[in-house]
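tool_call predict_complex ligand=2-phosphoglycolic acid
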Amino acid sequence: MSTSRKYLIAGNWKMNLNASEGADLASQVVSMFGHQTEVSVCVCPAFTALEAVSNAVNESNIRLGAQNMHFESSGAYTGEVSAEMLRHLYCNFVILGHSERRQYFGEDEVIVNKKTKAALAANLKPIVCIGETLEEREAGRVNEVIKTQAEGALAGISAEQAENLVIAYEPVWAIGTGKTATPEMAEEVHAEIRCLLASLFGEETAEKVRILYGGSMKPGNAAELLAQKNIDGGLIGGASLKANDFAGIVEAAIKLSK
Ligand code: PGA
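tool_result ok
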């Protein structure tokens, strides 16, 4: 990672942990990392646990993120939650366009773009997820897929706004499968994403945007992934549900920051 960017380790709890379980896990994260400043640490619980986790991380350096939001600020959208509602609970981040949202809930580039703009307008930092399927990788289409997803999600965003963006490269075939991209494979795509960001927003802004890797990151492989030049953190699913595993990844990032 470049020295101008601070690592971000974000736990994506997905549809796991109720409010009290979430508060318990968040309190453990706070006791381990709540006072360090070398690495940004963020937990992203389910909506029902946001308030309890918000209270648990309050007055610590642990940041709060949501896993999704609607792009409108209010109205007749049964079952949805707005960026303003998330800000009200002191969320700093929101995961957008996760491959599970694309696969199971029909989210496409147009929706992810609207959500990204709405998040930025509400002062939330979007963690925009992009990544190819195994089929796309085997067909040699990685760069094309990444370009379509990134340009689609980021259309109409200014360079100034882009400084608050986070991108997560998550190869779909590596999510929850135990298969991780090798550090070299991941770095190749991260470097490509950095180039895309430079073409959209200019070099200087592209250097400021954090690009996270996601897909079966765990304590055993975190250090070698995070050591890559363009890997600025991790979006952690399964391993973020166990305090010790999550801690191992945060510690790897802290060590590399020194
Ligand atoms: P995983 O999930 O770490 O369980 O592979 C990553 C993600 O989906 O964000």
